[in-house]
Amino acid sequence: MEVTEENPKVGSDCEENNPRKMGGFWGFVWRPIHWFKMLCKELHWTFVLGVMIVYGASQGVGVGLSRVSTQYYLKDEQKLQPSEAQVYFGVILIPWIVKPLWGLLTDTLPILGHRRRPYFFLAGFLGVISMLVLSLHKKLHLAFALFSLMAGSAGIAIADVTIDACVTQNSINHPSLASDMQSLCGLSSSIGALVGFSLSGVFVHLVGPKGVFGLLSIPPGLVILVGILLRESPVHNFAYRRLGEKLLDASKTMWTTLKCRDVWRPCLYMYLSIALGLNIYEGMFYWYTDAKGGPYFSQEVIGTISAVGAIGSLFGVLIYQNFLKNHPFHDILFWAQLLFGVSGLLDLVLVLRINLKIGVPDYLFVVIEGAISHVIGRVKWMPLLVLSSKLCPAGIEGTFFALLMSIDHVGMLTSSWAGGLLLHFLKVTREQFDNLWMAILIRSFLRLVPIGLLFLIPRRDPNLSILPTEMLRTKKGNGILEPETVELTSLINSI
């Protein structure tokens, strides 16, 4: 896929066989097919394949399988309390917080003449090795187990940064397709997560958490395949002695962009909106499986519940893509944040057993609650992703998008650790859940606070660029590598 100037016809369908003009059932069926074909035509099918592998297999299936297996591994193998598990899940996120480092490397430091390919190889091998260590070691010390989990997380993060650099670069050159590309990423991730979560409970039951870790060596293997298929313009005569200067130039560009009012204000909102939504899921997970008088869900049921959440995320992407992508970010976030806070109270209904009093079984209620909360969460997340892709200056797309995503992950880390401290403060343990309802109430209230911060989000057409024009052009001689062709070549052509 060669990066060219934006085609004014991009994203527009031909008058003939236009799915938007086809009504009824067939219009519903053909619309996503035509949309997918349009992306393959405008962005090249090999680029679309790379996005699907990284987001679908590595992040979707990989994270779907690892989430449930890691929960049971920390609970049953390492014997941790809910608050401890909540904090350690935050520790596993640390490689995502340093995403700007990976982005800075892939933007400024080519290896053997290539900017992207070596980092896909690094991500893949790091993931394969870390998962095999967790799977094959009989009794791994908690510190080494956390280190291996962090290494696997780092592999996913590096692959994510590298593909994000390609996606963001294309978003700059095709601003009208920015929402479509993020929808493709979201769809791939949601479908992959659906597959991963659907199989996770069954696999944990059949082969145990450590056996699942062995299976998790497959997705990073596919990331290595992306590195093999990737075709990029080689970097000739790269001056490694000037690497320090290039890193400094990239840092200056990042700082200049961050000082822009239309950049730092959305960044502040993204961090606060995530950090204030305290994560207490490990408390709920322990309650699902261990609480006296609780539902005592099995491993298969836990996996199914997570799979329903993935379906909810998928529907959230579809809702955004088909109905909301042309609406201002500010308006979408207002309603999404409001519904996000209200939906948190559904956990309160469950923990207080109100659902049983009105005749709704635990499993059905949890499935409904999970679907609703994930739909709302994805609708809330999508405009932030699109907004982030529009805040990246040319030349350091991967670095700056990684910086924005690291801000989000700092928010997630803050949310996870604050949630763990809240569970500890309220004395929610493996056997004691009397105060879990208070944690849910506090979390739901804090989710509403970001509504008062929406003045930080720009009120603009989501299909237009946000940065000044000069920031969207790569200047020659500034020490930052020029934009290049982003394409995956077929195996046939590589033989």
UniProtKB/TrEMBL annotation:
Name this polypeptide is given: Folate-biopterin transporter 3
Highest rank taxon of the organism: Eukaryota
GO CC terms: membrane
Gene3D superfamilies from the UniProt entry: MFS general substrate transporter like domains (1.20.1250.20)
Keywords from the named record: Membrane, Transmembrane, Transmembrane helix, Transport
Sequence intervals crossing the membrane: 43-65, 85-106, 118-136, 142-163, 184-206, 212-230, 268-289, 301-320, 332-354, 360-379, 400-424, 436-457
Localization, UniProt: Membrane
Family: Belongs to the major facilitator superfamily. Folate-biopterin transporter (TC 2.A.71) family.
Primary residence: membrane
CDD domains hit by this protein: MFS_FBT (cd17484)
Keyword Zinc on entry: no
Membrane topology reported for the UniProt record: Multi-pass membrane protein
